[in-house]
Specification:
Rossmann fold; 7-stranded mixed beta sheet; alpha/beta
C-alpha cells in the first residue's frame, strides 16, 4: 500500500511538472511577439528562507523597473524537499530555455550547476557556492552561474554569546549531514566557538520527523545555549526546536529573522529578503548584456540583529548597552 501511495504521488508530481513545462514553453514562445523576459525560480522546499528570498526577488524586479506580466513572467517551481522531483524539475526547466533561472538553497544550486550549462543561473540562500560546486572561488566559477552567498555570521554570533553570557563553556546545535550547506555552517560555528574556548555539541538529523528527538538528545548534553545553525531541514522545523528549548529552560539563539518572533532570544540573521534583491541586481547586469562568468559571487549586503526581550527575561538574560544601542538592532518586547 505504501509503495502504491508513493507511486501515485510521484505520478502526480510528474504531471504537475509536465504542466509547468508546457506553460513555460508556451510563455517562451510568446517572447518574440511580446518581448517579455521569461524567468524561472526553482526552490528546494517551503521554508522561511525561500519565502523571504522569493519576496526579495519580486521586489527587486520591481525596483529595477520591471513589471510582472508586462516586462516579465516569473514561474515558481518548488520540489517540496524531494531530490528526485528537483532533478526532474530542473530537467524540465532547462528544456524550456527561459531567459534566466533563479535558484534558492544549496541542493538546488548543486543540481542546477550539474545540469544547466547554457542558461544564466543566479542563486541566493546558499551558504557556500564553492562547496555547492559552482566554482573554485568567488571570481573563478561556472561561466553561466553567479549569485549571492548568505553564509551566516558565526563569528559575530560567538562574539555576542561571549559578551552576553561570559563564561559560557558549551553550546549546541542540530545539523543535517545530507546538506552540504548544513555541514559548512556547523563547521563555521564550531571553528569560531573553539577559538573562543567554547565547546560545540552537535546532533545529526536526517528528516523532519527526527527533529524533536534530536532536540531532546541535544538538551541531554546540557548546553548552556542552543545556537541553531541554518539549513533547509531545521529551518522548516524550527518551532519544534524552540519548543524543546523552552520546555527545558535553555535559551535558543538563531540565524533566521522570523525565529525571533517564534521565541529565539537573539538572532544574527543574514537578510534573506535582501539576498533576493541582491540576486536581481546581479541578474540586471545579465539583462544589460554582461556575461555571468564576468560577475563575481557576492555576499548578501545586509545583516540584521534581532533581540526578543520577553524571551530573554525568561532566562534571566540581560543585554549590554553595547548591543542594545548598536545601529540596526531590532528589539521586540
Amino acid at each position: 500500500m505504501k509503495t502504491s501511495v508513493k507511486t501515485l504521488l510521484r505520478v502526480v508530481v510528474l504531471i504537475a511538472i509536465a504542466i509547468s513545462l508546457l506553460l513555460i514553453i508556451d510563455k517562451t514562445s510568446q517572447k518574440d511577439s511580446e518581448g517579455k523576459l521569461q524567468l524561472v525560480l526553482i526552490q528546494y522546499n517551503d521554508s522561511p528562507l525561500s519565502e523571504l528570498s522569493q519576496s526579495g526577488i519580486e521586489d527587486g524586479l520591481s525596483q529595477i523597473g520591471l513589471k510582472a506580466g508586462k516586462d516579465y513572467d516569473l514561474t515558481v517551481n518548488n520540489a517540496q524537499g524531494d531530490m528526485a522531483t528537483l532533478n526532474l524539475m530542473i530537467d524540465a526547466v532547462a528544456g524550456s530555455k527561459p531567459d534566466l533561472i533563479f535558484v534558492t538553497s544549496t541542493p538546488t544550486l548543486q543540481v542546477a550547476a550539474n545540469k544547466i550549462k547554457d542558461i544564466p543561473v543566479v542563486f541566493s540562500v546558499v551558504a557556500d557556492p564553492i562547496v555547492a560546486g559552482a566554482g573554485t572561488s568567488f571570481t573563478e566559477h561556472l561561466p553561466n552561474v553567479t549569485g549571492i552567498s548568505t553564509l551566516g555570521d558565526y563569528e559575530g554570533m560567538v562574539k555576542w554569546i561571549v559578551l552576553i553570557r561570559p563564561g559560557t563553556i558549551k553550546i549546541g546545535t542540530i545539523y543535517s549531514p545530507a546538506e552540504a550547506n548544513s555541514v559548512k555552517n556547523m563547521s563555521e560555528l564550531k571553528k569560531y566557538s573553539e577559538l573562543a574556548g567554547i565547546e560545540l555539541v552537535t546532533v545529526p538529523v536526517n528528516s523532519t520527523t527526527e527533529v524533536t528527538d534530536a532536540a531532546l538528545s541535544l538538551i541531554e548534553s546540557r548546553p548552556e545555549i542552543v545556537c541553531q545553525i541554518v539549513d533547509n531541514l531545521t529551518s522548516s522545523s524550527i518551532a519544534s526546536i524552540i519548543k524543546v528549548c523552552q520546555s527545558n529552560k535553555v535559551p535558543m539563539f538563531g540565524f533566521v529573522s522570523d525565529q525571533s518572533k517564534k521565541g529565539a532570544v537573539l538572532v544574527v540573521s543574514r537578510d534573506y529578503h535582501q539576498a533576493g534583491v541582491d540576486a536581481v541586481n546581479l541578474a540586471k547586469k545579465i539583462f544589460d548584456g554582461a556575461k555571468p562568468a564576468d560577475i563575481p559571487f557576492e555576499f548578501v549586503s545586509k545583516t540584521n540583529i534581532l533581540i526578543n526581550l520577553k524571551a530573554a527575561a525568561q532566562y534571566g538574560i540581560v543585554f549590554p548597552d553595547e548591543l542594545l544601542k548598536r545601529e540596526g538592532v531590532i528589539i521586540s518586547e
